[in-house]
C-alpha cells in the first residue's frame, strides 16, 4: 500500500485545523446563544435599567483582560527560556493557539499536546513538563488565596465545615504523596525519577518569575470579577467580597470540567457563595458570562488565527 504523499498529509492537516477552529467557534456560539444571561437581548434588558453606557469602563475591563493574558504570555516565555528562547509574539502564538485547541478538552488537558506541537520531537516531553509547571504555579496561587478566602468566608458567615475530616483527608493525601515519592526513589521507576530530577534542577529564578506572573494574573482576574459586579447596583466593597471570589475560584479549580463550560461551574458556585452577601443570582450569572467572553471567547478567536496559520514541520507530516 502506497503511503500518503506529503501534499495529501498537508491537506489533511489543514482540514483538521479548520475543523478544530469551527468546532471551537460553534461551542462558543452555543454557550452565548443557549445560556440566558449571555443572550444579547436578555443581557441588554438586564443591564439597561442599571448601567449607563460607560466607554471608559469598557476600555478598562478590556485592558484588564489584555493584561491577564499578557502576563500569561510572559510567564510561558520565561518558563520556556531554558529550553528555547522565544519572543513575546511567538509566546502569544503558542499560548492563544493552545487555548483554542484545549477548549473542548477536559480541564484544558489538550493544552499540553498543543504547545508540544510547536517544538521538535526531541524536546516535546520537556515542553509537556514545563507546561505542567506553568499550570501548577497558577494552581498554587489559587489554592493559597482560595484557602485563606474560604476560611475567612466560613468564619464570617458561620458556615460549619468538618475540619476534622478535612485535616484527615489532607494528612492522608500528604502521606500518600510522600510514600509515592519514597517508592519512586527506592525503585527503578527511572522515568519518574528523571521527571522529578528535571523539575528539581530547573532554574529557581525562572520558577520564581513564573510564580510572580501567576500572582499578577490572579490579582487581575479576581479584581476584574469584582469590578464587573460593581456595574450592578450592589453595595459591597472589595475586602468584603474578596473571600467569596477567592473561594469560588478555589472550588471551581477542583471540579473536573471542559474549559468551555468553566463559566457554568463558576456561575453555579458563585450563585451559592454570593447569596450570603445578598447579591441576586442574575448579577452573578451575568458577571461569570462576561468573564467567559473576555477571558476565553475573545482570546480563543485570536487563537483561531494562530491555529489556522500553524504549520507542522515536513518531517512530522511525512512520518
Automatic annotation (TrEMBL):
Organism: Aestuariibaculum sediminum
UniProt KW keywords: Membrane, Transmembrane, Transmembrane helix
Transmembrane segments: 12-30, 53-71, 133-154, 166-184, 205-229, 241-261, 268-286
The protein, known as: Flippase-like domain-containing protein
Coiled coil: none
Record has Membrane as a keyword: yes
